[in-house]
Amino acid sequence: MEQKICPICGLEGKKVKFKTVKSLVKKEARKSNSYKICFNSKCGIVYFNNPESIYYSLLDLNVKVWFKDISHENVPICYCSNLTRKEIKEAVVKGYTTITEIRNYTDKNITGNCLTENPTGRCCHRALNEEISKYSVENHKSNCCS
């Protein structure tokens, strides 16, 4: 049975392709098809492989990780076009509320490199929508309650 538990925080990780790990780790990543990603924002481990006791921390990566660096405004949410949390927030404040509107406003429309650019190896649309929703709520509160 494959181990999916992060060796540091003990939470279950999600499978990630070796190609993703290889492209984002600073040093040469050890080849394996058993890498997982730890989504715990408080844990310093990003990728781990329990059968072989391999793990890579935030310090081992070439990029900041949006779900680990939750308060850092210059962390990309979309890695393909380097669309940051700060840019999303600014766009929402100006009234842009969809991914397409925000991409057009920021002129950050590059997509399709998720496997090698995004730490999850997956499309960023869910994370983008979560950020948009977060700032839409904050923007609504500041406009209605002042």
Q: What's the SSE blueprint?
A:
Blueprint lengths: L13 E2 L2 H7 L11 E2 L7 E5 L4 E4 L18 E3 L4 E2 H9 L5 H8 L7 H4 L7 H20 L2
Antiparallel strand pairs: 1-2, 2-3, 3-4, 5-6
Across the major sheet, the strand order is 1-2-3-4
Q: β content, as a range?
A: 5-15%
What's the helical proportion of residues? 25-40%
> What class do helices, strands and sheet pairing give?
alpha+beta
- Please mark out the parts with pLDDT under 50 across 5 or more consecutive residues, or reply none: none
Per the CATH scheme, the topology name of the largest domain is Arc Repressor Mutant, subunit A
- CATH first level of the largest domain: Mainly Alpha
- Run of helices and strands: EHEEEEEHHHH
Distance between the termini: 55 Å
Shape: elongated
Biggest sheet, in brief? 4 strands, antiparallel
